[in-house]
Write a structure and sequence with these properties.
By secondary structure, the chain is an alpha/beta fold. It is built from 3 helices and 5 strands; from the N terminus they run αβββαβαβ. The protein has a 5-stranded mixed sheet with strand order 3-2-1-4-5, covered by helices on one side. A hairpin with a 5-residue loop joins strand 1 and strand 2.
Length: about 140
């Protein structure tokens, strides 16, 4: 007599189809609930095309950046490092924090030379910057 239970080869297995269905629902939920935000390093307000002409500030310091990266504050050439440029900007602005830095950058000037001027203005405590461009008439 054989009293052992009869095994017909049935082994327990994991139902993968239900597992995949649950994962797909979770992926769809995560995709639908995710928000994509762009965080910028600078808070800038871009001008509108139809804005009124504003009054020029009482104090402006013109800064020219040439194509080869040389910087001039007013009509005086200044070395390229941020420290001496910041001292020159503070002297030209007479240490007035309301004074505006007006940057005239050549179209072929590198971004690094313009950013160096921006950093020097920050070091000098002059937060107001304006970038001058050349307006072109429509053909």
């Amino acid at each position: 007599m054989n009293f052992r239970p009869v095994h017909n080869g049935d082994r327990p297995e994991v139902n993968l189809i239900a597992f995949i269905d649950v994962l797909l629902v979770i992926v769809i939920f995560l995709m639908a609930s995710t928000s994509f935000n762009r965080f910028g390093a600078f808070r800038i307000k871009l001008p509108d095309a139809a804005t009124k002409v504003s009054r020029p500030p009482a104090c402006t310091v013109p800064v020219a950046v040439s194509a080869d990266g040389h910087v001039a504050v007013g009509r005086r050439a200044v070395s390229d490092d941020a420290g001496s440029l910041a001292r020159a900007l503070a002297a030209a602005a007479h240490d007035d924090p309301a004074c505006q830095i007006e940057v005239y950058a050549d179209a072929l000037a590198t971004h690094q030379s313009v950013v160096r001027v921006m950093e020097a203005a920050r070091l000098a405590g002059l937060p107001a910057l304006a970038f001058s461009t050349e307006s072109r008439l429509p053909d």
